[in-house]
Amino acid sequence: MHHRKISVLLALTLLTGLLLAACSSGSGVEKNQFEVGDKVASYWFDFTVDQVDTMESYGDYWAQDGWQLVMCRLTIKNTFDQDVSMGWADFILKWEDQQEDTAGSEPVEMVGAYALPQYTKSQFPDEYTLKEDEEVQGVLVYEVPKQVSRAAVVFQELYASGDSESEYTEGSSYYVWTELG
Q1: Cα separation, 138 vs 159, whole angstroms
Q2: What are the residues whose beta carbons fall under 8 Å from the beta carbon of 19, sequence distance 6 or more?
């Protein structure tokens, strides 16, 4: 049952990222704010964004013109009482939309990107299982516009509602903020 919920969680995390919803207050969902180096405790695992660097290339991959690569080194430790399925859509890099008019009273829209598929051994695999009590370290690489100067690595908890694969409940969101550049 837990494996099915976790699989649904990963699928819904993908959906959430595709929608790239705005951060809004009043939703009742806890949005925890952290900095690079802070240990973050989620329902299934603890994670730390250990290091963030911007660069033009990583491995054999070069950022397209007007873009930069953001390399995030993470440590993840399973604190759940079972194995946890993990994947490329678990951690999204989000930033404030630079094209929005920030003079208004509306909340600033957040946009984001998924990690690039694994193309070096140092990167996390696109899909993997975090064994009970296992700790892993790896890299996620994102491609973002060069004008982005501040961003957050985001993990969103999603729980399947009953036996449904299409209904879910949002849990806490965890934002690890960093300056880029």
Answers
A1: 25
A2: none
Its pTM stands at 0.78
Locus of tokens 């370290």 = 137
Q: Give SS3 for 148.
A: coil
Q: State phi, psi for 17 to the nearest 5 degrees.
A: -65, -40
Question: Hey, is 54 helix, strand or coil?
Answer: strand
Cα separation, 125 vs 118, in Å, equals 6
Yes or no: say if 52 and 176 are a contact pair by the CB < 8 Å rule.
no
Task: Indicate the average pLDDT of the chain.
Answer: 83
Calculate the alpha carbon distances from 167 to 18, 91, 101 in Å. 17, 21, 34
Q: What is the CB neighbour count within 10 angstroms for residue 20?
A: 14
Asked whether the predicted pLDDT for residue 59 surpasses 60, the reply is: yes
Q: Is residue 86 within 8 Å of residue 135, measured between CB atoms?
A: no
Strands of 28-134 (E only): list them.
Answer: 31-35, 39-41, 45-55, 57-58, 61-62, 67-78, 84-87, 92-96, 110-114, 127-130
